[in-house]
Amino acid sequence: LIRAVIAIAWFGIQTYLASIVLRVLLTAIWPGLAAYDQDAILGLSSLGWATFVSIWCVQLLIFAYGMEMVRRYESFAGPVILLTVAALAAWMYLRAGASIAWSSGEPMSGSQMWLKIFGGAAFWVTLYGTMILNFCDFARGCPDRRTISVGNF
User: Fold this and answer.
1) How many CB atoms lie within 10 A of CB 16?
2) 35-89: per-residue pLDDT in tens?
3) Exposure pattern of 50-80 as b/e (b: 16+ CB <10 Å)?
């Protein structure tokens, strides 16, 4: 039951985040749609609600065809996402003059330093916490402990 509640929450969060991406993409392609992005109905604009409901319907359509369709969609979306992120990273790197600044040049101290440290720690906990919480999903099809060890490596 707890996992089901978490899954429902993640479904809503991912639908919301995907709708933001779609909303931004649509306003970039068709600037006239920005007029529908000015109002607020329960925290989302009209365009925001339209993109949220659209993404939600697409996800329900995928789920309606069962887990095999979900697997096929994941097989398609995984490489597309990786290529998109790689292209975006290359574009940002070139826009930054092929230079990445690893620090601001001035050392931080006091509360500002600790805020950054805790922010970084929270990032790592969320990144790896997801994998730790879902380890049983990753390992349930493994026939023995050795297979789990090789997979983790």
Assistant:
1) 16
2) 888 888 888 899 999 999 999 999 999 989 988 998 898 899 889 989 999 999 9
3) bbbebbbeebeeeeeeeeeeeeeeeeeeeee
Place of tokens 């990753």: 138
In angstroms, the CA 10 to CA 51 distance is 17
Which structure tokens are listed for 107? Answer: 């050392």
Structure tokens given for 21: 């991406």
Please state the pTM of the whole predicted model.
0.60
The string of DSSP codes covering 72-84 is HHHHHHHHHHHHH
Are 148 and 140 spatial neighbours (Cβ–Cβ below 8 Å)?
no
User: How would DSSP label each residue in 1-19?
Assistant: -HHHHHHHHHHHHHHHHHH
